[in-house]
From TrEMBL:
Predominant cellular place of this UniProt entry's protein: cytoplasm
Domain of life: Bacteria
Gene behind this protein: pdxJ
PANTHER family: PYRIDOXINE 5'-PHOSPHATE SYNTHASE
Pfam families: PdxJ
Source organism (scientific name): Flagellimonas marina
Name of this chain's protein: Pyridoxine 5'-phosphate synthase
Oligomer and partners: Homooctamer; tetramer of dimers.
Active site: 43 (proton acceptor), 70 (proton acceptor), 191 (proton donor)
Keyword Cell division: no
Length: 238
């Protein structure tokens, strides 16, 4: 079974747009868990445009499933994660001004840095994951950092799948996933996964432990309702 971790960044975007506390992230996360999601993901960015650092602290008190915090390990982020102690930290090399995550780590170039950061988080009992493109060399580099898992950056898959190029979309991910498994790494995936593409991805990627889905899931929920949508994903991930 592949776990569904719901990324609630977009709920925070909506909340922040009015300055109040609607929707309430705490009750939303609790509801999403009660609908069957097996995890909650947040990605606080340095400008706190959606998730605020305080949200991470508040959510930690109520999330009873797997809590995943994603982000670029700048000093403030490292301190936050060590304080909050989520189940998992996912390291993402995102530039501050990027609209969203737009690349995986170069795990060869940044190996020494990643080794240090991974060691710090693991010493605190936090599971680690490194966001990577579907590239076997980057997967091998990730294994050398000591990380527990990788998260495959699925934007290229989603884009090609959308254009009807199914085989082209999935082949690099199959190779990357096989390599990761051979090297003993757990496999997560995320970015632009949706109700349209998730079943094909899941069926083709062996040993997929977890997907984190936010943007599409919240957009789909506008039409279909979030409880319904969470259950639609769970059915496709069986
Ligand atoms: C790591 C990743 O793939 C992102 O999808 C991310 O967590 C979403 O971030 P935004 O909501 O800021 O686009
Ligand atoms: N790690 C990916 C994530 O949390 C959600 O990405 P998206 O579904 O918002 O593109």
């Amino acid at each position: 079974m592949t776990k569904l971790s719901v990324n609630i960044n977009k709920l925070a975007t909506l909340r922040n747009s009015r300055g109040g506390n609607v929707p309430n992230l705490i009750t939303s996360a609790q509801d999403i868990e009660s609908f069957g999601a097996q995890g909650i993901t947040i990605h606080p960015r340095p400008d706190e445009r959606h998730i605020r650092y305080q949200d991470a602290r508040d959510l930690k008190k109520v999330v009873t499933t797997e809590f995943n915090i994603e982000g670029n390990p700048i000093p403030n982020f490292i301190d936050l994660v060590l304080e909050v102690k989520p189940t998992q930290v996912t390291l993402v090399p995102d530039a501050e001004d990027a609209i969203t995550s737009n690349a995986g780590w170069d795990t060869i170039k940044h190996k020494d840095f990643l080794v240090d950061v991974i060691k710090t988080f693991k010493a605190s009992g936090i599971r680690t994951s490194i966001f990577v493109d579907p590239n076997v060399d980057m997967v091998k580099g990730a294994a050398e950092t000591g990380t527990d898992r990788i998260e495959l950056y699925t934007e290229s898959f989603a884009h090609l799948y959308d254009q009807g190029k199914k085989e082209e979309s999935i082949l690099p991910f199959i190779d990357a996933a096989k390599m990761a498994h051979e090297l003993g790494l757990g496999i997560n995936a995320g970015h632009d996964l949706s109700l349209d593409n998730i079943k094909f991805f899941k069926e083709n990627i062996p040993h997929l432990l977890e997907v984190s889905i936010g943007h599409a899931l919240i957009c789909e929920s506008i039409y279909l309702g979030i409880e319904n949508v969470v259950n639609m994903y769970l059915n496709k991930l069986k």
